[in-house]
Amino acid sequence: MLNPSAALDRLRTLPAGPRVLGLVAATPGAWVVGGAVRDALLDLDARELDLVVEGDPTGLLDALGGTVVAHERFGTATVTLPEPGPAGEPLTVDVARARRETYAVPGALPDVEFTTVAEDLHRRDVSVNAIALRPAGEGEPELLAVDGALDDLGAGVLRVLHDRSFADDPTRLWRVARYAARLGFAADAHTTALAARADPRSVSGPRLGSELRLALREPDALAALRAAAALNDGLLPAGLDLDPARLPAALELLSGAGEVRRDLVLLAACARTTDAAALVDWLGHLGFGSRELDIVAAGSRSSTYMPLQRAQTPAEIARAARGVPLEVVALAGGEQARRWIDELRHVGLAITGEDLLGAGVPEGPEVGRRLQAALDQRLDGAIPPGRDAELQAALA
């Protein structure tokens, strides 16, 4: 059974939760809304607090403190709270004035008119997000929801609130896909039919790209991509493999590699059966940058892996892998990739080109060639580490 008091207790466990919820309780017409309420009612960890206020939110914004970035056209603001997060990261809260939205044309940004929280809930993407919770100073918190929302939440159903939902904002297709993957919910038959008829091309590429990025960061990103493909065949290019065999091993190789783009590894692994030119065009349209394009395009092509897979000695592995993004090396897989990621990429020389110039080597390509020869010998174990041995090898 959905328990508002237990949900409120769950929200209090969020960083800065007790203070923020106390301010909501003290502010007339202020509510916690959306995904945080949904997840807390399901006894899941909420990710963040989104607040809606009937009327002017200035008093609540002032009380929250921190830094406010306002978006006046939409009546919204993002507040960076004064409290740090558990790992020292900034904590943010989104605060919005209760509003209704209309769309001049499909896919356009909405025009906003301020209204009540009850009406604000009707503009949301799916019913399970159209729930609001208001803490009370004492006693039971108040729960407000659109018709059927609590039943949908209990049954695990994703249902859009009106027939033009996807036409007005096709990015909602991606949000439904993410909810399906994250919560294990399923769209009802009517929502599924509306989704299939929607045209994602009515919104800009970068807006769709932002939604794809969020899907790729889901705990089960492949499930989110599968859900998106099932909802609407215009969200993903033809030929994606949404059960890529190479992915688990590649992610395992990168488990200790530091800052790498696991989202791009996943996308590249899925794209091995797509047309390369079409893939690059699609990602470019979605606003992906040149380095991202390089990783996905190179990681999706078997021809990229061949020099590394054919390498035999440590020096050959290094020559094949040096300059290649780690994400692409991991997708090549095998022992050569493991050795480069875990060991060989960290091997370097104690000497520099200045040492060779000082020893009489003329300036020019010969310096680089000799340094490379010394490094190859270091990698292959032909010389021990240290300046003397390396310099002798470079001058031989």
From TrEMBL:
Organism: Paraconexibacter antarcticus
Protein's name according to its UniProt entry: Poly A polymerase head domain-containing protein
Cofactor (UniProt): Mg(2+)
Residues covered by the Poly A polymerase head domain: 30-158
Taxonomic lineage from the root: Bacteria, Bacillati, Actinomycetota, Thermoleophilia, Solirubrobacterales
Keywords from the named record: Magnesium, Metal-binding, Nucleotide-binding, Nucleotidyltransferase, RNA-binding, Transferase, tRNA processing, tRNA-binding
Pfam family, one: PolyA_pol
Organism superkingdom: Bacteria
Membrane among keywords: no
Family: Belongs to the tRNA nucleotidyltransferase/poly(A) polymerase family.
